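Structural prep section.
Before we set up the soaks we want a predicted structure of the protein with zinc ion in place, mainly to decide which crystallisation condition to try first. Input record follows.
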Amino acid sequence: MNQPGPTRSGPDHATLIEAVALHRDRAAFADLFGYFGPRVKAWMLRAGCNATAAEELAQETMLAVWQKARQFDPARAGASTWIFTIARNLRVDTLRRERHPSDLMPDPAAEPEAPIQADRVLAIAQREIRIRAALTLLPPEQAEVIRKAFFEDKIHAEIEKELGIPLGTVKSRLRLAIYRLRAVLGDLT
Amino acid sequence: MIHHHPTETTLAAYATGTLPEALALVAATHIARCAACRQAVATLEATGGAVLDEVTPVALSGEALDRLLVRMDEPPRAVPPVLNPELPAPLSRVSLGRWWPVGPGVRYRPWRASGVAWGGLLLAQPGRSLPRHGHAGLELTCVLSGRFADGSGEFAPGDLSEPVTDHDQPPLVIGTQPCLCIIASEGMRLRGLLGFAQRMIGR
Ligand SMILES: [Zn+2]
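Run finished without errors. Recording the tokens verbatim:
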């Protein structure tokens, strides 16, 4: 159960989250846990957490997935994106060593509820597919800075040191990469 | 209509959670009312989602799931109380100090934030200029009410100023209304009375 699960497609995970939301489905949660728990832990490790903190934050993230499943809105973000924002916010709170969760980051669960529109859900699912395609099409030097920023959470000055390129170059590569990703995604909001 | 936005690198730091707290507050205040930046952040968060799918998984401890299953009835973590209902949502739960005069017609009210950046509210009367510090790092200013102008243009409510080069021209409050801004900076060396107030506050 705690082994990294098989790769699933995005919509499948959304269905599992809905099963947790609607039926408090523990088997569906176990599937989500098997896939996302080890991935969140890996991301926390790359972001500089020690093994204990990464394990703890991964568990807290999955607990929040269970607790907040009702607020998951497939018309706003895909399952992986939603869980990424939960993991990120928990890590930010931990770094700030505050007793309470921060409301600095947009809480994906705190948005007003709106009826789900099928075409929006489809559009968001397509966006998630397109962004994966766009990432593979980035020029290598742009992909490298995006990966360092997201996988390893390097601040820009650290990327500068590691790649041995000036900070201005780091910033312009990051800017070009983000422009390109946004261009691929068009006007979807 | 919002005309001034944070740079892409600042939005990326915000989306990955690496922007220091005080700066993230200013960015959040802008993003809350800027559809274009909300879209950019959504794109960056989707990138984060893709990264989660791509990463090589690291197994959790053997009992992790069992341990979670017994915690499932725990209530979600409490949201901090609203302390400042008069301020926009990203600022409403921030713990603010008292107002300090930092020059003729200018007052400053710091908030408590962790990390390397500091920040707070700045209120300046018409015709006064906003204090700014030396450029040791990133500095963000978001207008809440009133307007100011500097070498790079006019700033109205919602606009965010992120100077990328040194500005010799201090921001000047224009129009007939006082200008209320939130500011945050990584810069440690502050000039003049604002620097004095910062030292008094001990941040
Ligand atoms: Zn904007």
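Observations: Chain A is about 70% helix and 0% strand.
Flagged for discussion at group meeting.
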